Amino acid sequence: MKNTILFDTYNAFIEKQEAAIPHIIDNDSEAIHWFFRGFKYPISSWPVIINKELTKDLEEISTFIPRVLQKVPSLYFNNEIDKIADFYFKGNKNTAKFSLMCHEKNVDVSCRLDLTYTEDGFKVLEVNMGSSIGGMEFQNFEPIIRELHPELTKSSNNNTYESKKTQSIYVNFLVNKVLEYVSGNPEEINIFLVSEAHQDANLKETIRGFYNELLINELNKRNLKGTVYLDSISKLKFTNKQLSYNDKSVQAVLILDFALNNITPDVFKALITNKIYFPDHLGTMFLRDKRNLALLRRLAIEKKFEASENEKILKCIPWTEIVADVELNYEGEIQNMITLLRARKNEFVIKISDGLQGNDVFVGKFLTAHEWEKAIIHSLETKTYIAQKFSDSIDLYAPNNDNQWIPHKLVWGAFGFGETYGGAWVRMSANKNDSGIINSATGAIEAIVYEYNT
Q1: Residue 227 lies in a domain
Q2: Looking at 389, 419, 445, which one is the last position of a domain?
Q3: Among residues 56, 194, 263, 412, which is most buried (max CB within 10 A)?
Q4: Using CA of residue 176, residue 169, residue 252, residue 419, what is the dihedral sign?
Q5: In sequence order, what are the residues at sequence separation of 6 or more whose Cβ sits closer than 8 angstroms to the Cβ of residue 272?
Q6: Closest Cα to residue 109, out of 271, 279, 289?
Q7: How far is residue 432's CA from residue 408's CA, in Å, rounded to a whole number?
Q8: Are 266 and 342 within one domain?
Q9: How many domains does the chain have?
Q10: Which CATH number do you get for residue 187?
């Protein structure tokens, strides 16, 4: 069968599949790491298996896009505080100043691109940056997938299947960044996870223990010591030129709750004086604003990057503009944007600049004319929405509830940790989806990605 989530390996898997299996895994299986048993989203029993060529495409795009995003403040705003404040921070110059100070440290951060795979290759839908990027946890479900598919464990004719251990790659990246950026070459690396004060104590310890296990595995490879702490950010104090928690030095701070905005002066001082690696500073957070995709395209059209980079940006980022009542170029014609959106609704998606889990996303082809008009008016009033050309996913066949292979639409999450590719995972939805939004929170099924090497 052509165009399945197994790509070139469909025949090999189907021929060697001895018995029918349910379309989603048993997420209470003992084969799953205890921390993730009872996972709230359904996970496909069938993996997505890609070849070297697609792997290379994902690797390139997931490290390229965050790299050029880092240049937006200087190339588009000329690092001018007033312009940055007005665009990102509702005119707050102090926040803009702090953000730019953090950003100009030019520290590698982690990101996850959300992509769709089209007839013209991968297209960037949005960029998530910092520590709160879901999907890294899927390495913990990989053992049960191998258990269900013996073909994955075999290496015949030099063919192998690899699923990236994204969480482990990320923790390894964190340790490397501490050693690279934190002054003094610490022999002990302690990581502080920020939690809300009201969080249940037992849950805190469970989370801390899990991340501590990951950290210890990486530190042991380097003969280093360290631990993970988890508590309120207010418990961190900057004294004697170091950041401390209960008199224990801290070398990295991660904010796993992306909604937390209260970054304390102590943490800021530690960052500015190179005492911690802190990927969630304000200079990172404004780069995930979806309007930056429009700015990147504008810069590429103005040839602000290298020729190959300009070409790559315009190829992998679909036509994207900030919703406003203005004249602009669309497919070689100058048109009024609002008139264009109204006349050709099936070609566009409108989405908020900094939304989560598919909220405030309006896909024109799945809405009535009245619903689409309301979306246009709302986006005009708030001035924080983008319109993006709808990038239709290639239909790939995957099993449904009845184990019938039917067409699905996919969104890919590809991880980039600085210049390191961290693998990918997929959310997929059967074509009967009536909203056009493919997200775990709206019913999509997760799938683990394997790379097929020959």
Answers
A1: yes
A2: 389
A3: 412
A4: positive
A5: 101, 102, 105
A6: 279
A7: 9
A8: no
A9: 2
A10: 3.40.50
Distance of CA 302 to the CA centre of its chain: 27
Per-residue pLDDT, averaged over 298-312, amounts to 97
Cα 236 from Cα 240, distance rounded (Å): 13
Decide if 356 is inside a domain. yes
Cβ neighbors of 375 (< 8 A, separation 6 or more) are: 350, 362, 367
Residue of 50, 32, 29, 221 whose CA lies nearest to 137: 32
Torsion (CA) 306, 309, 310, 313 in degrees, nearest 10: -160
Name which of 147-161, 265-279, 432-446 the model is least confident about: 432-446
Residues 270 and 216 in one domain: yes
The tokens for 126 are 């949005």
What is the per-residue burial (b if ≥16 Cβ within 10 Å, else e) of 285-311? Answer: bbbbbbbbbbbbbbbbeeebbeeebbe
Inside any domain, residue 420: no
pLDDT greater than 70 at residue 377: yes
Q: Is 219 in a helix, a strand, or coil?
A: helix
326, 252: one domain: no
Q: How far apart are CA 249 and CA 241, in angstroms?
A: 10
Q: What is the DSSP string of 317-338?
A: S--EEE--S-EEEETTEEEEHH
Structure confidence by residue, pLDDT tens digits, 76-111: 999 999 999 999 999 999 989 988 988 888 888 899
Q: What average pLDDT score do residues 371-390 get? A: 94
Least confident span in 12-21, 193-202, 360-369: 12-21
Does residue 88 lie within any of the structural domains?
no
434 vs 310, higher pLDDT = 310
Q: Are residues 336 and 265 part of one domain?
A: no
- Contacts with 315 (C-beta within 8 Å, 6 or more apart), sequence order: 120, 121
Listed residues 389, 404, 426: the one ending a domain = 389
Q: What pLDDT score was predicted for residue 2? A: 72
Tokens of 170: 């990320």
User: HSE of 88 in the Cβ direction (CA atoms, 13 Å)?
Assistant: 31
Is 154 a residue whose pLDDT tops 70?
no
**Structural domain for 349, as ranges:** 319-389
